Amino acid sequence: MVGKGGRKATEDAASDHHKMLAMVEEREARLRSVLETAPDAIITIDEDGIIQSFSRAAVTLFGYSAGEVIGRNVSMLMDTPHREQHDAYLTRYKKTRTKRIIGIGREVFARRKDGSVFPMHLAVGEVRYRDTHLFTGFIRDLTQRDRLEQELRQAQKMEAIGQLTGGLAHDFNNLLTVISANLEMLETRVDGDENRELVTEAQEATALGAKLANRLLAFGRKQPLVPKPSDPNAMILGLVDLLRRSLGGAIEVNLQLARDLPKALTDASQFENTLLNLAINARDAMPKGGQLTISTQVVMSNQTENSSLPPGRYIALAVTDTGTGMTPEVRERAFEPFFTTKETGKGTGLGLSMVYGFVKQSGGHVAIESKPGHGTTVRLLLPVFDGDAVDEVKPTRRHKSARHVQEAILVVEDDPRVRKVSVRRLKSLGYSVIEATSGADALAVLGGGAKVDVLFTDVVMPGMSGIELSEEVRVRFPDMKILLATGFAEPEALKAGLLRTGAGWLQKPYSIKVLKRRLDELLDV
Question: Measured on CA atoms in the order 423, 426, 427, 432, is the torsion positive or negative?
Answer without folding.
Answer: negative
